Amino acid sequence: MNIITNDTALCEEAIAALREVIDPEIGLNIVDLGLIYQLDFDAPNSNIYASMTLTTQFCPMGASIVDGVKEALQTAFPGYEAAVTLTFDPPWRPQRISAEGQQFLNR
Prior knowledge:
By secondary structure, the chain is of the alpha/beta class. The chain is 30% helix and 20% strand. The protein has helices at 8-18, 62-76, 99-104, and strands at 4-5, 36-42, 47-52, 81-86. The chain has a 4-stranded mixed beta sheet, with helices on one face. Helix 1 (8-18) packs across helix 2. The longest helix is centred in the middle third of the chain and has 15 residues, at 62-76. It is globular and about 40 Å long.
């Protein structure tokens, strides 16, 4: 897992919360699927900035997944506002799937 962050401790908490967000078409959580690129925290202003991707730009569940990320972060960090940015640069590739995710998918 290669998530860029400005706060390792808070990132670990965020990752734990984001493991609860499941891609409904694949059945795997978005962390192990490798969809999260960056998590930055602005504690003085109570903001979390997440940069993520989807397996395809045309993912029919994209809006639902993004909403799930925002909700999971705001639940894990009460009082914080989460902003989620979708990016497709670099594009998602199956090599981003964690070892646990590959085992889940029987790869």
